[in-house]
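Contributing new records

If you add data, match the layout below exactly. Sequence lines come first and carry their own label; structure lines follow with theirs. Keep one chain per record. Anything else will be rejected by the validation script.
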Amino acid sequence: MKKRISIVLTMIAIITFGVFIYYGSLTEANKETDSIVIDKDGEVVEPLSGNNDNIGH
């Protein structure tokens, strides 16, 4: 009975630890890729600057 309880508690700890690691890495990845834009050729496009008056000219 003690062996079964220890196995269950270990599994719960591993799952909890994995969830924290997963969500931690997921939010970091979203923060890093928010401003990166890639065009159809696969090249990285620079983000727009404050000078937006000349768009399309």
